[in-house]
UniProtKB/TrEMBL annotation:
It is found in: Cytoplasm; Nucleus. This is Inositol-pentakisphosphate 2-kinase. Coiled coil: none annotated. GO terms for biological process: inositol phosphate biosynthetic process. It is an enzyme of class 2 (transferase). Belongs to the IPK1 type 2 family.
Length: 452
């Protein structure tokens, strides 16, 4: 990218979350990710540069190590002409959902992250201009806390996502409670995973988006979004899955297309053999305790059938969901068990503020930082070192609990390797290849945002 010659007309609004706003280049497969702040929060250019560099280092030296080379895209910090950023900000303002406008794009520093556009990434094995479908899932936390430090008994029975649903509907953030439960998705049981994905398709909230050739075709921005229409989605997807079998429109076609989509996503989520710490981690037979959330309709039906402890998790060890779950489970203590340790670190830093740097509280997120995270001991010896390790592991776990998995699908030519089989683009039945499963990471700087 030639940062010297930037034209705002070549970029368009792509999406945003709570902390950043993303614009995509119209032709090239790149995006720019800008930080956002409340209007009153003034940060210096140097602070913003450091924040972005920390995100890159955290992705490179921590998340990549945990999840494996192929799944994490770190990007790079770029400096852009201020005039370009200001014009871009004006250009996209009208496309931003109202609920996100409490924060403004950073137009003062000129710094942003440049990343591959994971919604339309092409790889060498695919001809240019091949259609691309991208499914983005934010699965959230996939286990119930086991820690004895948990004081609210319900947290051992109902997962955080499902508990949160009640709050979100009560506060008007979303219109209705979703039937999606992360524990179903992470179960590794195909039937439960299908149920979870169908539930996400019914009530996408901020947990599911679908892009076609980089354009958002399914998902909601806030509670005012129009009701998601499966017929419209099926219309977009039919050429990917059933290009020439003559299925007309109508409910039968819609159901068939949705079923196929769910089947393919499940297959992708269960595939993968990329190496990474979490894949190699040995923790005995897997999580103990209940693996079903009582709030999930699927969980309740298992309960009615007297199957409280379904089969062991069927997640294959190498698959991305397995690895993500292992990293999430670095949170061994739950926030209730963690908080006293956080306070121990905080008190120490109040007394010895100069130690902040030596302890790598705000980075650098380098090899030494990563090595400390590998100590999984739970024996509290009362030291600041122990407390800090648990706090840093919690931060990594939080990143994995809030990450999105971006799955790009594209029909391909006959290929002896890998993946899902469906009616291919050309019309004859050939193999289609799932190209990549992508993760994007957010939480790089936690201490700057207050207590975890
Ligand atoms: O706490 P949660 O589980 O509600 O997660 C927050 C997300 O809410 P969700 O429940 O997914 O709608 C929240 O997402 P939304 O703004 O609700 O789309 C953010 O992802 C937030 O991350 P950050 O602190 O801004 O970096 C997330 O906060 P963290 O807890 O990951 O810091
Ligand atoms: N590299 C990328 N390629 C394509 N789309 C992306 C990329 N990075 C982010 N996006 C899109 O932009 C949206 C917002 O980005 P992101 O989730 O990183 O924001 P955030 O503010 O950090 O999120 P949160 O609300 O979880 O804190 C994502 O949901 C995704 O659709």
């Amino acid at each position: 990218m030639d940062e010297g010659k930037m034209d705002e007309n070549e970029w368009g609004y792509h999406g945003e979350g709570n902390k950043s706003l993303v614009v995509a280049h119209a032709q090239r497969c790149v995006v720019l990710r800008f930080l956002k702040f409340p209007p009153s929060r003034k940060k210096t250019s140097e602070e913003i540069f450091q924040h972005l560099q920390n995100i890159v280092d955290f992705s490179k030296n921590v998340m990549k190590e945990f999840l494996g080379e192929n799944y994490v895209h770190c990007g790079e910090v770029v400096q852009l002409p201020l005039d370009f950023v200001k014009q871009l900000c004006l250009k996209i303002q009208s496309e931003r959902p109202e609920s996100r406008c409490d924060k403004d794009l950073d137009t003062f520093s000129g710094y942003a992250l440049c990343l591959p556009n994971l919604a339309r990434l092409q790889t060498y094995r695919f001809a240019e201009h091949r259609p691309i479908l991208c499914v983005e899932i934010k699965p959230k936390c996939g286990f119930l806390p086991l820690s004895s430090g948990v004081t609210h008994e319900v947290k051992h029975r109902v997962c955080r996502y499902c508990l949160h649903q009640h709050l979100k509907v009560a506060t008007g953030k979303w219109k209705q409670i979703s039937k999606y439960c992360p524990l179903d998705l992470y179960s590794g049981n195909k039937q439960r995973m299908h149920f979870a994905l169908k539930s996400l398709l019914q009530e996408a909230q901020n947990n599911l988006k679908i892009f076609k050739n980089g354009e958002l075709i399914y998902g909601c921005t806030d509670a005012r979004s129009p009701v998601a229409d499966w017929n419209e989605l099926a219309y977009h997807l039919k050429p990917f899955f059933f290009p020439s079998n003559g299925l007309a429109g109508g409910p039968h076609c819609t159901r068939a297309v949705i079923r196929e989509l769910v089947r393919v996503i499940t297959r992708v989520l269960l595939s993968g053999s990329d190496k990474g710490w979490a894949g190699a981690l040995r923790r005995g037979p897997g999580p103990r305790g209940p693996r079903v959330c009582e709030a999930s309709p699927f969980g309740r039906s298992l309960h009615r059938q007297g199957k409280n402890s379904p089969e062991c998790s069927g997640l294959p060890k190498g698959c991305l969901l397995y690895k993500t779950l292992q990293v999430q489970m670095l949170d061994l203590l739950d926030i209730e068990g963690l908080y006293p340790l956080y306070r121990r670190v905080e008190r120490y830093l109040e007394e010895f503020p100069e130690e902040r740097k030596t302890l790598q509280i705000d980075g650098p997120y380098d090899e030494a930082f990563y090595q400390k995270l590998l100590d999984l001991s739970t024996e509290d010896d009362g030291t600041v070192a122990f407390a800090l390790t648990k706090v840093q592991q919690y931060r990594v776990a939080m990143t994995a609990k809030d990450c999105s998995i971006m799955i790009a699908l594209s029909p391909c030519l006959q290929d002896s390797r890998t993946a899902a089989r469906w009616q291919a683009w050309s019309g004859s039945e050939t193999r289609s290849d799932v190209r990549r499963v992508q993760l994007k990471y957010k939480k790089a700087v936690l201490f700057s945002g207050g207590p975890p």
